[in-house]
């Protein structure tokens, strides 16, 4: 049957685009569904203000009346301007193990980006590095965790065959959570914790966090500026980001440090791995999914490290270790056993050394690819 590539038009086709992964992953025991309510926001131009700073296209591959693949193209004007690049992006790609479908989808995005004046294409990469990024290329035997991609092995293989090469590798570490703080952490903690010009702030409720959330995101904009793929959040996007993730966060795993003037100089955010609850819910919050997710939050033995940063002028002073020690203390109190680094750029030797110091091992590798147009 003839293959046709069409842009998404209307709510029903958007529904098809959003839920296609349920079909392509139906035989994948490790697949972790997204929260579908989040997907409806992510792909809604009226609710996701990242669309305002980008050209986008969402395509579905059809064989007759059956959707057999999808892909999204993004040109991030803000990122290209900041980095003086003319790069397009592809992301959220899904299809069966079908070379014809894959080739038609990726060629369509390449042609779209070329017509927009782009000189290269990179991906998988969304609006920002905060969206799922890369194709997983190693560690398929390890279950997926939330906010990471969950692709099948044939996708990166097909992409390589299409002429794409490595742009960046991103690593995920697993480290054992010790029964007590390592001696090195204790020494650094004692030295930094007693500095009169620094104040560690901890939380017991989400209500206590809210007054700090915008300051944290502003510091994220500052400290993540050099991270590949990161696009600074606008004020409106900061509020959306806060409202999206704050309900999922455990206050006990959020630590911030301020200086004597009250200026935020460091932050570290972890959260219990909710993957088992999300998987059991099928990605739906209602009617019972929310209870499964709350159960996972209360019983998870794995701590995901999500975000962290320290102002440039305060780096190398042990502030990151101070916050890390307090997060480890919280994890030890909750009898957690595994620390998941989430995503660490391969060239980030400082963060890699931190996880290796705790006995961390690389369990997954993700790759962002590129191709000249």
How would you describe the overall organization of this protein?
By secondary structure, the protein is of the alpha+beta class. The longest helix is centred in the first third of the chain and has 17 residues. The two termini are 30 Å apart. The chain has two domains: 169 residues, 3-Layer(aba) Sandwich (Aminopeptidase), CATH 3.40.630; 159 residues, Aminopeptidase. The chain is globular and about 70 Å long. It has 13 helices and 14 strands. Strands 1, 2, 3, 4, 5, 6, 7, 8, 9, 10, 11, 12, 13 and 14 form a 14-stranded mixed β-sheet that branches.
Summarize the structure.
This protein has 373 residues and is an alpha+beta fold. Helix content is 36%, strand content 27%.
In oligomeric terms, what are we looking at?
single chain
CATH C-level class of the largest domain is Alpha Beta
What number is the mean pLDDT? 91
The general outline is globular
Helix content: 25-40%
């Amino acid at each position: 049957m003839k293959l046709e590539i069409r842009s998404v038009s209307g709510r029903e086709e958007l529904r098809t685009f959003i839920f296609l992964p349920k079909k392509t992953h139906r035989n994948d025991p490790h697949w972790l569904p997204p929260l579908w309510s989040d997907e409806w926001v992510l792909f809604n131009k009226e609710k996701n203000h990242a669309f305002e700073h980008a050209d986008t296209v969402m395509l579905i591959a059809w064989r007759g009346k059956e959707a057999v693949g999808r892909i999204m193209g993004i040109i991030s004007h803000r990122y290209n301007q900041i980095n003086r690049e003319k790069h397009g992006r592809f992301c959220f790609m899904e299809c069966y193990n079908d070379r014809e479908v894959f080739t038609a989808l990726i060629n369509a995005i390449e042609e779209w980006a070329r017509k927009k004046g782009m000189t290269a294409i990179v991906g998988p990469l969304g609006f920002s590095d905060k969206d799922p990024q890369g194709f997983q290329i190693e560690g398929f035997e390890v279950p997926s965790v939330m906010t990471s991609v969950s692709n099948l092995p044939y996708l990166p293989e097909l992409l390589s065959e299409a002429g794409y090469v490595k742009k960046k590798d991103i690593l995920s570490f697993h480290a054992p959570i010790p029964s007590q703080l390592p001696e090195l952490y204790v020494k650094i903690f004692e030295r930094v914790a007693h500095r009169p010009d620094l104040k560690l702030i901890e939380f017991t409720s989400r209500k206590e966090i809210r007054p700090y959330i915008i300051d944290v995101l502003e510091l994220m904009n500052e400290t993540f500026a050099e991270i590949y793929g990161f696009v600074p959040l606008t004020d409106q996007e900061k509020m959306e980001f806060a409202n999206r993730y704050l309900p999922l966060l455990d206050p006990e795993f959020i630590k911030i440090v301020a200086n004597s003037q009250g200026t935020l100089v460091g932050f570290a955010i972890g959260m219990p791995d909710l993957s088992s609850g999300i998987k059991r819910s099928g990605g739906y919050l209602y009617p019972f999914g929310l209870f499964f997710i709350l159960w996972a939050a209360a019983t998870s033995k794995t701590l995901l490290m999500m975000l962290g940063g320290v102002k440039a002028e305060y780096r190398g002073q042990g502030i990151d270790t101070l916050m890390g020690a307090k997060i480890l203390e919280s994890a030890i109190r909750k009898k957690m056993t595994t620390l998941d680094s989430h995503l660490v750029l391969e060239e980030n030797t400082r963060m890699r050394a931190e996880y290796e110091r705790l006995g961390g091992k690389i369990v997954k590798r993700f790759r962002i690819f590129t191709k000249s147009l």
